[in-house]
Design brief:
By secondary structure, the protein is an all-alpha fold. 70% of the residues lie in helices and 0% in strands. The longest helix is centred in the first third of the chain and has 39 residues.
Length: 108
């Protein structure tokens, strides 16, 4: 019986640790979203395409989970950052964002 409690406690701690990593990544993405909005502010020609792309990258039902922002899922975001920058914890620069949105506008 004690063993079962220990296993359950370990599973709870493991679950909490995985949630902590997710919360930390979500906070980093939320701050990046704010920084991106500030970077994008003077580029009014990219606002509409920025909103379209934000909607495309946002996780499903983003309004039902904290931080209640249209940010991508943690695993998807880390995969994209590793494939682009070689580091899953990387964050795109403001210039990269502007270039990406200009490219999206160009191919439409």
């Amino acid at each position: 019986m004690k063993y079962a409690i220990f296993v359950n406690d370990f599973a709870i701690l493991e679950f909490m640790a995985s949630k902590h990593v997710s919360v930390k990544t979500n906070l980093r993405m939320a701050l990046w979203l704010l920084r991106s909005a500030i970077t994008l502010f003077p580029h009014s020609d990219l606002w509409v395409i920025g909103i379209i792309e934000l909607k495309r990258f946002a996780r499903a039902r983003w309004w039902s989970r904290a931080p209640f922002l249209p940010i991508p899922g943690t695993r998807y975001w880390e995969f994209r950052m590793e494939s682009i920058y070689g580091d899953p914890k990387a964050m795109p620069s403001g210039r990269d964002l502007i270039e990406f949105l200009e490219w999206c506008l160009e191919i439409r």
